[in-house]
Amino acid sequence: MSVYAVPPLETEALDPAFEQKAVNTIRILAAEAVQAANSGHPGMPMGMAHVAFVLWTRFLRYSPRHPQWPNRDRFVLSAGHGSMLLYALLHLTGYDLPLEELQRFRQWGSRTPGHPEYGHTPGVETTTGPLGQGFGNGVGMAMAERWLAERYNRPGFPVVDHYTYAIVSDGDLMEGVASEAASLAGHLRLGKIIYLYDNNHITIDGRTDITFTEDWRRRFEAYGWHVQEVDGYDSRAIAEAIRAAQADPRPSLIGCRTVIGYGSPHKADTPEVHGAPLGEEELRQTKRNLGWPEEPPFYIPEEVRAFFRQAVDRGQALEEAHRQLMEAYAQAYPEEAAELRMALAGELPPGWEEALPTFSPGADATRNASGKVLNALAPRIPYLVGGSADLAGSNKTTLQGAGHLAPDDFQGRNIHFGVREHAMGAILNGMAVHGGVIPYGGTFLVFSDYMRPSVRLAAMMGLRVIYVWTHDSIGLGEDGPTHQPIEHLASLRAMPNLVLIRPADANETAEAWRLALTRTTGPTALILTRQKVPIFDRDQEGLGPASGIRRGGYVFYQHGQTPQAVLLASGSEVAIAYQAARQLAQEGVPVRVVNLASWEIFQEQDPTYRQEVLLPGVPKVAVEAAASLGWERWVGSDPTQGAILGVDRFGASAPYPRIYRELGLTPEQVVARVKGLLDLRSAQVEAP
């Protein structure tokens, strides 16, 4: 039984005049919406409407009434500035996107924002806008599809079987993330990728030949792609190219020669139509040029609407065929079917937490602990899949004995992303929005800069992506300032909906993985050490439990009933603060140590809890081997009430204990700062 038993809309013998009317409906809807908003990009939708029409009516398999049907083909508008092309198609084919939403394009509260947003508009598969990101997302979607297919499909039961299509632009191909992603896709021979390149020779600044004169065909052939070129207004040629792409085992790029702003008598084939409305007069002349009635606005011929709306019944038939296939599959392979359903639902298997290890007192790097946790969890969570940007041995991201993704074998669970952090970030997003896998990716924290656009989009989309960012401070030592992250924690903490967790020891690292796996509303970053740190004997030393980081921050240690000072720290500096606190205790100064492993989670706690932990009014000293920016939130800005020991300069190349000493991050320095703060407060009290 094939999930493709239901044919696409029959357009092979469609009357050319009717086809042109249907395509012009897309063009005019896009141009009118941009004009009504007085903002937007009409040129790309007008130029690529014909290509999109062929794809959406002859090839793309989707279900407008159930946009998240798992076996749908994925369509990515990587050229997200042309969002009205997608919105017009979604409305016409029967998604829950009324015409009123097209009329409210780019307005407050509408479901038609300037660039497509995942989770906001039905049918939008991923958030695009920053060029190249959608290109990389599509590679991730195709990787997830192939991994799931090879793990779960059985002879006669292609329960996971779909393509990833995208429309990409000149700008997408220029961005470095596309080069990285294309290189990996070609290596892995991801044959179910079919990208349609809007080759219109125009960018915002002028014709593409002012910057983009490379031979894109030979470039992608060198990546290992199947490359074709067609007239973007020849339906038969477009369809034949897509069929040839489907039959080829390599990822495919189809260059479609188009005219930006097609139909506009004075602005077509010019940069003017790229990112600005046509203007009322030019819109009227465009309608006349295309034989379109000038009134009413947002006109859709009834016969065109009826043709497109066949997609609703067709989608339901596709779903029903797949549902029957899944029922038969469940009878033949009940265990595999149950696991697949759980994976597609994003659920964790029952009892998975029982595999979380507990570490005995001693010393180890939190990156090492993370690797041990990963390998303990992997057998319990079979769809936990990921890897590293050529740093697996350093990031400890390898799942032992689990194999790796290779061109001829996709059943492994380790991904060798190569030295491609930018693409890795975009691919992880694509895997997450596809569903069926829980993706993770590792690199050094300093190289999170390469991933930042993708991380930002993961946070915006609310994706369950896990980042394993190791070598988190000057503690990496001899590699020096180029590899020592300084400003990164402050910068990443500023990003909405990204949760950072910087565990203090191995047992907190296990808890950090628990938090990351159970968080389904956004990405989580584990910030881990290269150097060994103590594994605390919490019971023996009277310390707070490692589970305290589930609330982001907790009382790690306290001496005395009424602390005179509170020491705040995260990660490796918790041990420094603890040593300082014990020294102060010996000198008769009662203090509390608070571990702020995750600012974001701590901020989500009830204000009463936060006050109980932080003790308002008690002097505070924060210590972290990173930029001090941001710690004012917790210690205050009054120098008589708080102080911050941070690193507000770049690091150095030396053994890490020496760097910590030279930069003043030692228990002795913390003790001195606490005493100085208390002396200053005493002097203020004694002053007349």
Question: Can you give a write-up of this model?
Answer:
- The protein is α/β, with parallel strands linked by helices and 688 residues long.
- The chain folds into three domains: 16-318, Thiamin diphosphate (ThDP)-binding fold, Pyr/PP domains (Rossmann fold); 352-534, Rossmann fold, CATH 3.40.50; 548-686, 3-Layer(aba) Sandwich (Rossmann fold).
- The chain has 25 helices and 20 strands.
- The longest helix has 31 residues, at 302-332.
Task: Give the topology, please.
Layout: H1 16-37, H2 43-59, E1 74-77, H3 83-92, H4 99-103, H5 133-152, E2 164-169, H6 170-174, H7 176-188, E3 193-199, E4 202-203, E5 206-207, H8 216-223, E6 226-231, H9 235-247, E7 252-257, H10 280-289, H11 302-332, H12 334-345, E8 362-364, H13 366-377, E9 384-388, H14 392-395, E10 414-416, H15 421-434, E11 438-444, H16 448-461, E12 466-470, H17 488-493, E13 499-501, H18 506-518, E14 524-527, E15 533-535, H19 538-541, E16 553-558, E17 565-569, H20 573-586, E18 591-596, H21 599-603, H22 607-614, E19 620-623, H23 632-635, E20 642-645, H24 656-662, H25 667-686
Parallel strand pairs: 1-2, 2-3, 3-7, 6-7, 9-10, 9-11, 11-12, 12-14, 13-14, 17-18, 17-19, 19-20
Antiparallel strand pairs: 4-5, 8-15, 16-18
Helix pairs in contact: 1-2, 1-3, 1-10, 2-3, 2-9, 5-7, 5-15, 7-15, 11-12, 13-18, 15-16, 20-25
